[in-house]
Amino acid sequence: MTRKIIHIDMDAFFASVEQRDRPELRGCPVAVGGSSARGVVAAASYEARRFGVRSAMPSVTAARRCPDLVFVPPRFDVYRAVSRQIRAIFAEYSELVEPLSLDEAYLDVSANRRQLPSATATAQEIRARILAETGLTASAGISYNKFLAKIASDQNKPNGQCVITPAQGAAFIAALPVAKFHGIGPRTAEKLNQLGIFTGADLRDKDMDWLQQRFGKSGAWYHAISRGIDERAVTPDRPRKSSGSETTYFNDLVTNGAVEDGVRAMADEVWDWCERTRSTARTVTVKVKYADFQQITRSRTIAGPIADRAHLHVLGVELVRSIFPLAKGVRLLGVTLSNLEDAAAPADRQLAFVL
């Protein structure tokens, strides 16, 4: 049976919530994030995007591009509450809902729980419900697999939807620039371009061996998606793969001690999450961004789960010491845990620590 997949993506979610709750911001270019010299844009309204303001952009760059930009501090508790409202709507249409973040999710509506005439009509009704119940707009992509549904949701943003049928899939992918393929980042797109691959049609012309020799395990994925093949199912309650925390400092950290203290502080935030969710992990990654925006990461995976907060401190500090002595100031530090699992019994955690 051909699947019917919908990808719902809220339009400029964080910024739209702020404009909804503060009428004086409607129609204004808005950036959610800090306005300081070290601030970063978390989200931008469509009015701001017209000036080239984008998420993850330094706030000083955003303000330079858009002098009238209004900075608003994030309210993640509000965004999470709205996200729960939206997910409650999704649950009325399908048992197969796979959230990707607070503002987007896949739905498999093949079972047609509401007995609507098509997946297209289902997406329209879901978007109308979201607007009526939250005052926010959403865009949707409808197709026969996740890859195409994700791409389709971007085609008619904001407040629109796009359908890619099985009969249209091959031609749609053939004409699509590889830089717009979901999962192909700027560096991979550049490498593909250097190899003479600019569109889906160019990618489809390469056989499996050729792609695997140059892209390893990803070669098989590129071979499949260039032909419109994506067999991934919509998976509810997808296990979380990682949890992390990072901060950008107002002043560069210029001493070893300050950097170590920063890593411990980020480790504390991540461990607080572990305690709340009763999770632990086996892999620690420390992220360092220098004053010149050069970024490096250091990771370590241990045999058993991390025993406690102190153990995480030790691992994080050991990793960051590999960059000492500092050659330049540090503007950002982050600590991420991955290889997550349910917390083991205390005795088991201690045994893993000793080993």
Automatic annotation (TrEMBL):
Residues 5-185 form the UmuC domain. InterPro entries: DNA/RNA_pol_sf, DNA_pol_Y-fam_lit_finger_sf, DNA_pol_Y-fam_little_finger, DNA_polymerase-Y, DNApol_IV, PolY_HhH_motif, Rev_trsase/Diguanyl_cyclase, UmuC. Its EC number is 2.7.7.7. One of its GO terms (molecular function) is damaged DNA binding. Binds 2 magnesium ions per subunit. It holds the Pfam family IMS_HHH. GO terms for cellular component: cytosol. CDD domains: PolY_Pol_IV_kappa (cd03586). Keywords: Cytoplasm, DNA damage, DNA repair, DNA replication, DNA-binding, DNA-directed DNA polymerase, Magnesium, Metal-binding, Mutator protein, Nucleotidyltransferase, Transferase. The record marks 14 as: Substrate discrimination. Its cofactor is Mg(2+). It is found in: Cytoplasm. It catalyses: DNA(n) + a 2'-deoxyribonucleoside 5'-triphosphate = DNA(n+1) + diphosphate. Belongs to the DNA polymerase type-Y family. NCBIfam families: PRK02406.1. Monomer. Poorly processive, error-prone DNA polymerase involved in untargeted mutagenesis. Copies undamaged DNA at stalled replication forks, which arise in vivo from mismatched or misaligned primer ends. These misaligned primers can be extended by PolIV. Exhibits no 3'-5' exonuclease (proofreading) activity. May be involved in translesional synthesis, in conjunction with the beta clamp from PolIII. This is DNA polymerase IV. It comes from Edaphosphingomonas laterariae. The lineage of its organism: Bacteria, Pseudomonadati, Pseudomonadota, Alphaproteobacteria, Sphingomonadales.
